[in-house]
Amino acid sequence: MRVGLYPGTFDPITLGHIDIIRRASALVDKLVIGVAINRDKGPLFSLEERVSMIEAECALLSEQTGTEIIAHPFENLLIDCARDVGAQIIVRGLRAVADFEYEFQMVGMNRALDDSIETVFLMAEARHQAIASKLVKEIARLDGDVSKFVTPRVYTALRERLG
Fold first, then answer.
1. CA atoms within 13 A on the CB side of 109
2. Cα separation of 128 and 6, whole Å?
3. Residues of the chain predicted below pLDDT 70
4. Taking the model in full, what pTM does it have?
5. Which of these is catalytic: 95, 111, 153, 161?
6. Most buried residue, 45, 87, 104, 133, by CB count within 10 Å?
């Protein structure tokens, strides 16, 4: 069984994330969405809320693709999380050249820690390249319309959280 790990904070999950999840599903039999517990980032949504959103948004996608998609919280090193879930590949989404520079460093460090786990980069679809959770939260905080960037369920959660 080919297992992939797609890590992130997913605070909140966006249409860009869902696009990468959909496309990564074609590459693996099981896709683990690694939900990072990153206390330094001060997430808007709790870990439980983020996991719940991912599970809700990925249920139909899992059915459509035939790929098992599960959410898995983690707080350890990414490479250790990959080992914990039995992942042979780490999936990373890229939006722009700036993302690549950071990701290039991460790949080098992860390869030094465990060269048996490959990293696969997927470019975001053009219509999703500008979407970033940080920007979605900022726009929503300032009462902007983020409905083009998230699903209706996530949009409702953002509105409820931010008032």
1. 10
2. 17
3. none
4. 0.94
5. 95
6. 87
Does residue 46 have an active-site annotation? no
Three-class secondary structure of residue 46 per DSSP: coil
Q: Are 21 and 61 in contact (CB under 8 A)?
A: yes
Give the pLDDT score at 98.
73
Q: What local confidence, expressed as pLDDT, does residue 38 receive?
A: 77
Residue-level pLDDT at 42: 82
* Tokens at 139, concatenated: 């726009």
22 is annotated as an active-site residue: no
Q: What is the per-residue pLDDT across 44-79, written as a single tens digit (0 to 9) for each?
A: 999 999 999 999 999 999 999 999 999 999 999 999
The reply to whether CATH 2.40.10.170 applies to domain 3-162 is no
Which of the following is catalytic: 30, 92, 128, 133? 133
Residue 148: active-site member: no
Joined tokens for residue 136? 């979605």
| C-alpha span between 21 and 17 (Å, rounded) | 6
Query: Which of 17, 22, 30, 137 is an active site residue?
Result: 17
78 touches 90 (CB < 8 A): yes
Q: Please indicate whether residue 17 is annotated as part of the active site.
A: yes
